[in-house]
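Journal club prep — side note

Before the paper discussion, L.F. wants everyone to see what a predicted structure for a comparable chain looks like in token form. Sequence:
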Amino acid sequence: MLAETTYEIVKSLLNGDFPQAKQYNCYVITRQDLLNENGITFYNGNIKALVSKLKSESGKNIYCDGGAEIVKLFMQQNLIDEYTISIIPTILGDGKRLFKGGVNAINLKLQSSKQFESGLVQLRYVKDEEK
């Protein structure tokens, strides 16, 4: 699942192509009524209903990619089971927040960390239901 803005950015970087749609069922979350195209389902309905529907189908995981708006929407409805946070070794000086405000605190438990030769570090967390 992607936010419409992220979808547009990916397409512009790949000359109009969206390769994920060739491998996976892709949903783009939008506020508009758009016709589905090229393996992409544009969705502007209830997010919780969509996640429930997808979890009831066969398959492994639901992957959500997007900016702070879409992540906040999923966090507010307690729809994220696992967080993958990547730390890129570049100091921007000024940039966008990773998470938007307006969400209750969520306790997380570190599952793994992985370091890459590029200096990128990827942290994988799950919700800590014990706290």
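L.F.'s comment for the group: The chain is about 25% helix and 25% strand. Keep this in mind when we get to the figures.
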